[in-house]
Fold each of these.
Amino acid sequence: MDVAQNQAPAAVAPVRLSRDELAALAVRALAAQGMPEPDAIDAAEILVLADLFGVSTHGVDRIPVYSERLRIGGIKALPSVAVERSAPSLLRVDGDNGIGPLIGRRALRATMELARETGLAAAFVRGSNHFGPIISYAHIAAAAGFATIIATNATTTIAPSGGKEAKLGNNPLGLGVPNPGGDPVILDMAMSVVARAKVRLAADKGEAIPPSWATDRDGRPTTDPTAALHGFLQPIGGYKGYGLALMVDLFAGLMSGAAYLNHVSSWADAPEAPQNLGHIFILFDTNRLGRPDWLGPLVEDFTAILHATPPADPARPVLVPGETEYRAFHQRSRDGIELPAALHAKLTALAGKRN
Amino acid sequence: MDVAQNQAPAAVAPVRLSRDELAALAVRALAAQGMPEPDAIDAAEILVLADLFGVSTHGVDRIPVYSERLRIGGIKALPSVAVERSAPSLLRVDGDNGIGPLIGRRALRATMELARETGLAAAFVRGSNHFGPIISYAHIAAAAGFATIIATNATTTIAPSGGKEAKLGNNPLGLGVPNPGGDPVILDMAMSVVARAKVRLAADKGEAIPPSWATDRDGRPTTDPTAALHGFLQPIGGYKGYGLALMVDLFAGLMSGAAYLNHVSSWADAPEAPQNLGHIFILFDTNRLGRPDWLGPLVEDFTAILHATPPADPARPVLVPGETEYRAFHQRSRDGIELPAALHAKLTALAGKRN
């Protein structure tokens, strides 16, 4: 190898930023698009947490897309996010088509305040957009002692069981329980057996896929990844996953007064149109469920029992939900987050200046 | 065929009872075991609904088992079911080891009353036993305008993903949304791909099973139903279903102050021991989420969109969750419920007299 070849990769090496540096960059990039700084700080908190947890597809990587939609008026830089208390323990939030992580962060804050008062509170959110990963919200809530059930609807990618037309989104559902002595237990799952990206990867490699992953466009299970890309992702457990995706849409979409099923428009196909996505946040104040400090020892016992399960493969011990993500979180909080050079350059350009 | 052969089947023909007749028989059978009549009425309501919905494994069929456990002191005929309001929207219920459907019905009633006041309420229930099918509770709540999230833990049958020891129950989770103009949409699902009975059926027939159904006792997926019967049921979507079963146990078991994981004892292996199962009931008053009569037209639109999905097989149209069960419910409410003759005889004997 000559020197030029050695230097070429160095020129595109990822840029390592501390958590605070990444947050500052994200805030500047969002504020430069016209968002008030407090709003940019709220949204950036959710996105940077996504990067810390290793869910980088839902992190600051989204800011260029948000910026483009802000530019063409698909979402609003200055929404009037309205929180209405419709019953002692219920909030209805109208996001007014702002960016999703801002609306989500606002709804979460309002729900935390109300749940502190009533022990249990929920927010039904409409007029929103893609709000980032559920684990970011569950993490913030768990740190304050709240158990969570959080869900959102999404652009349609899944056909109903036995059907051959996409009617449902991958509608993520998350459940979280705080662990005062350690990391919370947080499940954040979408309803398809695998993400579309895994089907695409198989197609690129020319490999067959298991028949449980997807159907062709006629709704028949297929092992051909190319046929699958023209068809539909299959939900977990067949009609069970279909049922879960549908119930999430009823709770997060329909009951929130948001769009649902194929009334949801696609940000990819129609970036200029409001999506009117819906979310639901349900928060339980675990301090109201027992004597002080009751929860920690029980969650420790619970996770210890699971970790002690003899593994089928000794090299792969049993994990609990969120464990992989919290490993990334601790490592990246300590060592910083690596951004691809191209993304770092984009964000820096959006922020309007180099740091 | 001679006359004797014709008569033999007639002697064991099922007995058809109206809904009211079946309820009366169930109440008498339970009251004869020492339960106060109001308690017997509450428990019988849940069990008879199970039979109406076609979930007969969770219906009056259970009364002989309950009776045996009452007889040997495994459960109490005269429990002191205690409801404590631990926060404005939170209830903690101690079932005091009464029969499950009684405790569940009491917890549901208390949660409905509180949710009417606060818009959203939850009950965390401990000291309980198998409480019947979730659809019975979701149906009662939906008829009064409540959307529901209901779950329970259960005797362990599922190994954690990658593990080879049963640590989790099949932990059913149910979600329900009322439909003021028609049948509610109710999902009531356990976390395994299939019930154990389906594996047993394949073993009896000598047929292979799909590798997604179960593992052998070493935690490896198997197509041999006999090996599967010595192993573990697989949860839907692998680690996703494992995660859901685990989160249900955290919410319904651990957070309720009930037993969890392998702390739950088996009613089959140790019928004389209290199980200390836990349930959670979360109820939303849908009247507090919009203008009067807002919900019906939206749920009608929602189900109509799904029903209009082109089916992969024209003979099998797309359904929504609960549709099959409500078909049975309407048919049996009209035509009555057929009880196997042996079960009818047992219940009549338990009731202490023939009707």
Amino acid sequence: MAEQKADEVVTAAFLVIGDEILSGRTKDKNIGFVADYMTSLGIDLKEVRVVLDDKSDIADAVNALRNRYDYVFTSGGIGPTHDDITAESVAAAFDVPLNLDPRAVAILEKHYPPGQFTPARQRMARIPEGAELIQNKVSKAPGFRIGNVHVMAGVPSIMQAMMDAIAPTLRTGTKMLSETVSADLPESRIAERLAAIQDAYPDTLIGSYPKASDGKFTTSIVIRSRDENILKAATEDVARAVAEISG
Amino acid sequence: MAEQKADEVVTAAFLVIGDEILSGRTKDKNIGFVADYMTSLGIDLKEVRVVLDDKSDIADAVNALRNRYDYVFTSGGIGPTHDDITAESVAAAFDVPLNLDPRAVAILEKHYPPGQFTPARQRMARIPEGAELIQNKVSKAPGFRIGNVHVMAGVPSIMQAMMDAIAPTLRTGTKMLSETVSADLPESRIAERLAAIQDAYPDTLIGSYPKASDGKFTTSIVIRSRDENILKAATEDVARAVAEISG
């Protein structure tokens, strides 16, 4: 359909950086936030990776993702401590120098009392050459954007503020709309009808999500499309199928 | 140090499969569980990826991860509906046929009332050739292991039961031990001392995790090592540094 082909699709990947997520010590709260945020902007989040605080792991992931998607967002590893190695890893990925950035130095010098802009804090002013700063309203130390890669803090409140600062600069696509139909049925009972509805509406994505509670299975069926009318028609067909099978 | 070199390190990656995580519709609960589980077993979780329900995305991720790590665990996409394509994607990654597996058929035929083992439910008995089944105590439909790849359900209660079934079959390494020191300080004030302690104890991993609440920053310092004595000594040094700087 012509109007479907005109849809603009913008893609993104999210890279979570930090030993603490992979050891289980910290439970990630950023993936769900970024997923919701991208959906609300009209950007398709296509992949997430979580890697260790390891220079070559970070650089390899940044390069793999920036070549594949329109945008890459990272969280974690831009603080003042020795284990914060995201800036140098991203500089390595882009093969550019990492130096004290006069703009970042100015922001942080103003933020700390005189004499308190210590060498550790100066680490947070090291920005890869050619990058733009990303404003940090919460704790001042900026993130940065280089090419299509946006480097943000890992602390959720700071990451979220940085995402708000980035959002107006992003190209966005046609929003993916969604509807949910709840079925008091295990998904295996509705599977054949759903497959037929999916076939009938190729411009939708129909997902079936089972939930177990107290040994009973129920299902949420999520119908997604960038076209409001197609979404409505497919959702009605799903609701009808659920009603008929629930009988 | 000789005893450090004798440590056995076993590595793993976790692959989360599902559009619903990337759209934000479902908030992942499996990454944190698997991270904790691997740490408790003595397996180093090195990487996590989240990919769409897309055959080539899944197969590419499985192949990248299985060649790099000792074990791969996946969650999601093994149910009865059209959007569950993990089994066929993993079969494609290993270039083996995907057929109805007599062992899986036997389990599911017994589970459903006579005549209720429908074509949709038979999808759950399709297992890549050469795979072993993974028991599912919750809802019967099995997962499977092929090579070093363990394919599990996405519903957390089922995934967790499958992990318990897999655990006794896994080779494990020397456990990574950890201690945490809480500091009522922003991490930039302790950064230089931590870097020096990290340098003094190369057989530890020292991580610094800031937390923002009500505009105030505190820090958790996590010291990790496979050697109990080294861990104790490094932790004491960190605690002393925090006390001196707080003092």
